[in-house]
Amino acid sequence: MSILIIADDLSGAADCAIGFASAGLQTVVTLDALNDQPDAQVIAADTDTRRLSPEQAAERTVAAFKALHKPGQRLYKKIDSTLRGNWAAEVAALQPLAGLAIVAPAFPATGRTLRGGRVFVNGQPLETTDTWKLENADRPADVESMLIAAGLSTAKLDLDTLRGNPDVLVHHFAELARSGTQAVIVDAQTENDLLTLARLTATLDQALFWIGSGGLAREIARLSDFFDTPARRVETTDGEYNQAPILVLVGSLSGVCERQCTVLKEQGGLSELIVPPAVLRQGISHQDWATWQARIGEQLDGWSDLLLRIGRDETFDPHEGAHLSTMLAALVEPHFVKVGGLIATGGETARAILTTVGIDSLQLLTEVEAGVAFGRPSASRHGYRPAIITKAGAFGTDRALYAAWQHLSETNDRSQPKRPRIQGLE
Hints:
Elements: E1 2-7, H1 10-22, E2 27-30, E3 42-46, H2 54-68, E4 73-78, H3 87-98, E5 100-104, E6 112-115, E7 118-121, E8 124-125, H4 130-136, H5 143-149, E9 154-157, H6 159-162, H7 166-178, E10 183-186, H8 191-203, E11 208-212, H9 214-221, E12 246-250, H10 255-268, E13 271-275, H11 277-282, H12 289-301, E14 306-310, H13 321-332, E15 341-345, H14 347-356, E16 359-369, E17 372-380, E18 387-391, H15 400-411
Parallel strand pairs: 1-3, 1-4, 2-3, 4-11, 5-10, 5-11, 9-10, 12-14, 12-15, 13-14, 15-18
Antiparallel strand pairs: 2-16, 6-7, 7-8, 16-17, 17-18
Helix pairs in contact: 1-9, 2-3, 8-9, 10-15, 13-14
């Protein structure tokens, strides 16, 4: 069994695929959703559809599936564990092509669970969290209603049934498929619940695909007997450029990420620069653009690890995140050759910096903590391949960024190397 993962943002693609890399499978994340990776056992394609209209997102998702899917390959549609984006429209578009949709967004390792078809975050209903309110004020966070609105017929699978007799459960899925049900919403409270679901559905003969966050994907990765070839450990040799300093880019404004930044500064002692949104909105024409670009260069020239963040003001709109992230990447680009390790928090931020510096795919290597993925560029436009860690903005422990920084600090030579001369990045 090989796996095709289709995700709607880069950090999501990475946190979903990293479980397979940790299990020893050749795993690649690609930013070009139409670019095949023939040597990979697991391909995670970022379609970058989070901010599109539902119709555009569905169209791009189907195009990625048709371009990348191979006979015998299983499909995993990665969705955000807090139901952001156009996930329901994307699932509805894939369902006629892939079969019964097994919908299980729970990610217990990060505090996301599903009960009665509703998402809870650390025991709190999703609708009451800042994560949901930031972008979805006054909208219900109900999995079933979202799927029905997208045109799918649904059924729910509760915990008692999931944890019951396996033979009865197999019969139940067969009956659902025969009844014309298109999507089954599966409650899960623990990793063992998801493992039970993974084992069962991997053996079913009927056409189906999985819909979930990194939680269910991690449990599927544990099913080593179902993969076509033996797991292969990927060598994690360091390149000559993967050295100090480390740059931490933060585009997320979530409370979770704010706490992570605080811990990183207190325990890691990093310098911090917070770029005003006004500078990023206006870009190179802003009177302070050159000053900010110089300040970033000075920090990195001094071999100082740097925490670089997008600020917030009274006119901030969450929907401008992609533009602000793109402009933040533009500030960094002239100095990227000085960076020995990169940590990018937030899918839009990660995609913006990698696209800007010409990196279109990552070979994933290991997991720093749940959903925090470490890898290296498979290739880059300029041949420069620093160590890279990605993390979704709104989850992880308070120590997640610090743990990521520690991982790069221990991986990289902290001495001052001779910097390469790379045309286009100087």
